[in-house]
Amino acid sequence: MTRRDVLVIGSANVDVSVTTARLPRPGETVTGHSSLISVGGKGANQAVAAARCGATTRFAACVGDDAFGRMVLERLDDRGVDRRAVQVLHGRATGLATILVDAAGQNCIAVASGANAELTPERIDALAGSIAAAGVVVLQCEIPMASVYRAVEIAAAAGARVILNPAPFRGLDLARIRGRVDVLVPNETEAAQIHRHAVTTSAEAAAAALALHAAGIANVIITLGANGCVLAAAGEVRAFPPHIVDAIDATGAGDAFVGCLAASLAAGDPLPQAIERATVYAALSTTRQGAQASYADLGDLERALAAGRRTHP
Ligand code: RIB
Questions:
Q1: I want to staple 294 with a disulfide (CB 3.0 to 4.6 A). Which of 77, 219, 220, 285 is the partner?
Q2: Domain limits, the chain
Q3: Is the CB of residue 148 less than 8 Å from the CB of residue 171?
Q4: pLDDT single digits (tens) 47-78
């Protein structure tokens, strides 16, 4: 690996998605109108997004020795992700996500971790060479948190740029990441959980981003779905408007954002430019069904950027 390469460490799942007019209430059954079985997992999604956006990308994960594990490996090969650090664990099930998507494209997700829970700190230690050689190391929280902290520690000590997407939120010890994570990328829900204050308005998002930045994270990006995102960096906060599209499925849009951001930073782009690219890339992903299945390639991204950002008047 080189300093221009991206290493994503994290989860791989198979996603079973059903689209319904609205999400069911507890105890209720609703009839869906379409379904999709596809490869997902926040880690794998971010790796595929980074590769599709032009980065030389390696992915480190654990899958089971089952049909779903084989689906994950085939998809990584297909998308040009180096998966030599993906371990196939005998007798373990590959992670599985059940996803419901409503008519507005919003989703809810439940994940059975399976083999993802086996990406232990010991396995992270065994990856130390790859971590130290990467330019950008990307992490999320669908693997044990002890492993996330260990990877952050090794990467930061080696001078790699660390992007942490605290999703799903499973508690975050800021003392273990401050000064080590270069870019923290929560969505509004995760930001509220970390900050312990509501994040529903753009003013609240700006306040949360500044507070996390003041707590010792160099760059904090809070993604706000259809409302764009805010960045707190160098003592200031800046809002980035959304790229307007007709969204049908937001599954994996946050991962598309993180993967594109990583690719752009690895290519040497300044952070604001990387955020602009990631905003457009994530928006494009919502115009198709599924997570990785919805990710555009670099050509589509460049064409969308050349056509200009579509923002609210
Ligand atoms: O962020 C979307 C992803 O969350 C899905 O692909 C699913 O596998 C869960 O990990």
A1: 285
A2: 6-307
A3: no
A4: 999 999 999 999 999 999 999 999 999 999 99
